[in-house]
Amino acid sequence: MTNPSNIFIGGASRGVGREIAKYLTAQNFKIKALLRTADTAAELEAIGIQTVLGNALNMSDVERAILANDRIYAVISTIGGLPQDGEKADFLGNKNLIDAAVKAGVQKFILVTSIGTGNSVVAMPPQALEALRPVLIEKEKAEQHLIASGLTYTIIRPGGLKSEPATGNGILTEDPRIIGSINRADVAQLVVRSLISDSVNNKILSAVDRNMVYPGQPEFVELSLDQ
Asked: Where does the NAD(P)-binding domain start and stop, copy by copy (predicted)?
């Protein structure tokens, strides 16, 4: 795989998306980010990110951002909401990004969702599952839309997210039974490595810190990103 140059990020204003944007710009990738508000635009532009104001729930905004002059190599999306939020971007926002990516002919789409989505529902404690169910349903719809799109995809489902510095112990596994915690910065590192690895193409992966796996988990196989 050739090294990607132009990367589009949905969700770069906060959390994992912002960490991804920081890692990619530090490695001299050319980044374009869709922002719903201008609050973080100056900060992102200061580190070399091109920002486009628009709402992922509005298809015309998304197409204006993705179908611009510079061809986008890959799209990374971390967009989503909380159960108490209004109209959720977890499905519709991601659907718009996926559909625009198909039109743009991008070569890879990385979608960050959550453990508890799809078949990883078996990993979730019942109380947490009940609280997050509305969001997880929307995330699963987004995953299925991406799988059916024909794009080369990687779906990464992080466990419980923490805001500490990266430990370097983040791992990916195809085993949907696994659950644990992981720092946002480590998720970002895994996403960036997945961008240029063929071993994760068309796979759905859970992401945890190998030292933060919850007690009582079955043995599992880590996926190598070195291929």
From this structure: 11-195
CA within 13 Å, CB half, 35: 22
Annotated active-site residue 60? The verdict is: no
Residue type present at position 151: L
Domains in the chain, CATH or no CATH each = 6-209 (3.40.50.720)
Radius of gyration of the chain (CA): 16
Query: Using one digit for the tens of pLDDT, what is the confidence trace for 24-51?
Result: 999 999 999 999 889 899 999 999 999 9
The 10 Å Cβ neighbour count of residue 176 is 20
Task: Note the pTM of the prediction, 2 decimals.
Answer: 0.94
Model pLDDT, residue 23: 95
Candidate list 5, 60, 77, 114, residue with the active-site label: 114
Helices (H), the chain: 15-26, 41-46, 59-66, 92-104, 126-148, 184-195
